[in-house]
């Protein structure tokens, strides 16, 4: 089942398999219009070590982040994720499935 882009109504995310420098290949989901990307929870540790700590810090994210301030709903499970600053970049993190949405200019 395709994942909808949370920024571009009516647009599905395209699946792309990438091979991180260490570890097995993982799937990313990218929007061809806005260049935003979705990382499923298990993908975080392999593709982006900077974000891999988020699942262990859910309480901090909920306390310091703003629920629904970024994207309105998680593309994977439909819960309002929390917008949270990581190294000066606002990312959207879902407390339920641990997925992350990065706007096109954020994942670079």
What does this structure look like?
The protein has helices at 41-47, 58-64; strands at 14-18, 26-30, 37-39, 66-67, 82-86, 89-93, 100-102. With 108 residues, the protein is of the alpha+beta class. It is globular and about 35 Å long.
H-E string: EEEHHEEEE
Which structural category fits the helices and strands? alpha+beta
Question: Strand percentage, roughly?
Answer: 25-35%
N-C termini distance: 27 Å
Helicity level: 10-25%
Q: Major sheet: order of its strands?
A: 1-2-3-7-6-5-4
Sequence stretches where pLDDT stays below 50 over 5 or more residues: none
* Count of individual helical segments: 2
Mean pLDDT, to the nearest integer, reads 90
Secondary structure: number of strands? 7
Major sheet attributes: 7 strands, antiparallel
Features:
108 residues, single chain, 7-stranded antiparallel beta sheet, alpha+beta
Compact overview of the structure:
The chain is of the alpha+beta class and 108 residues long.
Summarize the SSE layout with pairings.
Blueprint: E1 14-18, E2 26-30, E3 37-39, H1 41-47, H2 58-64, E4 66-67, E5 82-86, E6 89-93, E7 100-102
Antiparallel strand pairs: 1-2, 2-3, 3-7, 4-5, 5-6, 6-7
């Amino acid at each position: 089942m395709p994942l909808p882009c949370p920024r571009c109504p009516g647009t599905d995310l395209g699946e792309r398999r990438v091979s991180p420098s260490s570890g097995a290949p993982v799937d990313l989901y990218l929007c061809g219009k806005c260049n935003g990307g979705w990382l499923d929870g298990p993908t975080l540790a392999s593709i982006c070590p900077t974000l891999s700590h988020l699942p262990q810090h859910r309480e901090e994210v909920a306390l310091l982040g703003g629920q629904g301030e970024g994207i309105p709903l998680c593309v994977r499970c439909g819960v309002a994720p929390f917008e949270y600053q990581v190294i000066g970049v606002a990312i959207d993190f879902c407390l339920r499935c641990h997925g992350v949405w990065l706007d096109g200019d954020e994942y670079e």
